[in-house]
């Protein structure tokens, strides 16, 4: 069994709040984590029609049946239930009484904000990280520049891991990634998309999803995406929000520090899981990925999503941005720690060349700092001209 790094954060949150919500994409391991961490809790799955009907028709009776703390799975399916949980937690004042899980962040957060504000801690569980799969400690993202490199003795081929992705069923059941992602995509379209928005033509939405995959790692141009999909920019904006709410994609905002140059203000689009990304791009093997035209963007997506996982597993929102000016100078990732900014460049090449440092050198001259890191596709870790060079496996 692969241990989840969020376990300690979940235990801590349950000791401090009457309710804890664990949200994340479907099949990321939320139920398994909650039941492993709280084996003595009662359990109810609101995906089951009879359980959901009971909770909807008689919420007081449904909650009264539990004589001990309970895990309520896919709780966003019965949003009215939150209004009945609130007086219970206020009366009992018992920490960790309700462990809630859900895969639709928009509805779950909306219900928590309306009924359980101040009473509920929310944690986000993504698919396995490379560090979890290799039983490595979690990153302290604020100290990443000072950390001693930590990686497996034989990390293997980066593209094999990137192609496989991190969803637990692929590792638990040994399913071929392309087969599993095909079923996952179809299930996502049929279940989550129909539940969250009124999409009459799922074929059009699937085309939009694949076109969005082709833009991972790029500045988001909604007009271009709308034209290619054949829908309006307003529809694309709504559909991007849907992908974000169901943990398929995230938007990386630009950093706004002014270096006396006009800055780009549009976010960049990334997918949370590179296995799903590869499937949507039609990549059928790690060997294909290694020579794919979008290899660099996929590799960049992988590194940034891994650092997002480190943040979520530590219970913090990622303090991460990208930076780009109107002249085309760009830093792939900037970690913000108060007034300090730590720039990271990401290159998929397995051999370090001098021009890989150009963007970092430009940034360091502007910011008057010695800080900086280059993450690349090779296996060595060292420092060059004050810049930390780190293997993909050390991220």
Task: Write the topology of this structure.
Blueprint (H helix, E strand, L loop, with lengths): L6 H8 L4 E5 L6 H8 L4 E4 L3 H9 L1 H6 L5 E4 L7 H12 L5 E5 L2 H11 L4 E5 L5 H4 L24 H7 L3 H5 L4 H20 L5 H12 L4 E2 L2 H8 L3 H13 L3 E4 L15 E4 L2 H7 L5 H5 L4 H19 L6 E5 L5 E8 L2 E7 L11 H10 L5 E4 L5 E3 L2 E5 L4
Describe the structure.
The chain has 395 residues and is an alpha/beta fold. The protein folds into two domains: 7-124, Rossmann fold, CATH 3.40.50; 130-394, no CATH class. Helix content is 42%, strand content 16%. The protein has 17 helices and 14 strands. The chain has a six-stranded mixed beta sheet. Strands 2-3-4-1-5 form a five-stranded parallel beta sheet, with helices on both faces. Strands 6-8-7 form a three-stranded antiparallel beta sheet. Helix 11 (202-213) crosses helix 12 and helix 12 (222-229) packs across helix 13. The radius of gyration is 22 Å and the shape is globular. The two termini are 22 Å apart. The mean pLDDT is 93.
Key features of this structure:
alpha/beta; Rossmann fold; 17 helices; 5-stranded parallel beta sheet; 395 residues; globular
How large a portion of the residues is in β-strands, by DSSP E?
15-25%
The whole-angstrom Rg is: 22 Å
* Main beta sheet strand tally, sense and closure: 6 strands, mixed
Alpha-carbon distance between the two ends: 22 Å
Helix content: 40-55%
Reading side by side through the largest sheet, how are the strands ordered? 9-10-11-12-14-13
């Amino acid at each position: 069994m692969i241990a989840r790094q969020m376990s300690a954060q979940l235990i801590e949150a349950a000791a401090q709040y009457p309710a804890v919500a664990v949200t994340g994409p479907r099949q990321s391991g939320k139920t398994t984590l909650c039941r492993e961490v709280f084996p003595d809790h009662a359990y109810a799955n609101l995906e089951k029609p009879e359980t959901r009907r009971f909770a909807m028709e008689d919420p007081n009776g449904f909650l009264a049946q539990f004589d001990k703390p309970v895990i309520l799975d896919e709780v966003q399916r019965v949003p009215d239930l939150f209004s009945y949980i609130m007086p219970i937690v206020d009366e009992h004042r018992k920490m960790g009484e309700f462990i809630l899980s859900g895969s639709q962040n928009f509805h779950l957060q909306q219900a928590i904000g309306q009924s359980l504000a101040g009473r509920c801690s929310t944690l986000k569980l993504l698919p396995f990280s490379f560090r979890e799969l290799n039983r490595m400690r979690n990153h302290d993202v604020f100290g990443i520049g000072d950390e001693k490199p930590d990686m497996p003795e034989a990390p293997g081929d980066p593209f094999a891991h990137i192609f496989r992705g991190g969803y637990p069923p692929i590792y638990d059941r040994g399913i071929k990634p392309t087969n599993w992602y095909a079923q996952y995509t179809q299930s996502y379209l049929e279940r989550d998309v129909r539940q969250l928005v009124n999409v009459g033509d799922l074929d059009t939405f699937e085309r939009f999803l694949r076109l969005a995959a082709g833009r991972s790692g790029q500045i988001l141009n909604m007009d271009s995406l709308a034209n290619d999909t054949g829908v309006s920019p307003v529809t694309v904006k709504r559909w991007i929000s849907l992908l974000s709410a169901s943990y398929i994609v995230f938007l990386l905002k630009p950093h706004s520090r002014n270096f006396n140059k006009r800055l780009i203000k549009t976010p960049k689009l990334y997918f949370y899981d590179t296995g799903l990304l590869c499937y949507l791009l039609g990549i059928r093997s790690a060997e294909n990925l290694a020579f794919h035209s979008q290899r660099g963007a996929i590799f960049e997506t992988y590194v940034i999503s891994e650092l997002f996982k480190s943040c979520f597993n530590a219970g913090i929102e990622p303090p991460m941005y990208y930076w780009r000016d109107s002249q085309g100078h760009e830093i792939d990732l900037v970690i913000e720690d108060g007034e300090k900014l730590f720039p990271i460049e990401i290159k998929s090449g397995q051999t370090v060349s001098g021009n890989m440092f150009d963007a970092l050198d430009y940034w360091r001259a502007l910011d008057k700092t010695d800080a900086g890191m280059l993450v690349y596709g090779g296996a060595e870790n060292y420092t060059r001209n004050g810049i930390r060079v780190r293997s993909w496996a050390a991220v």
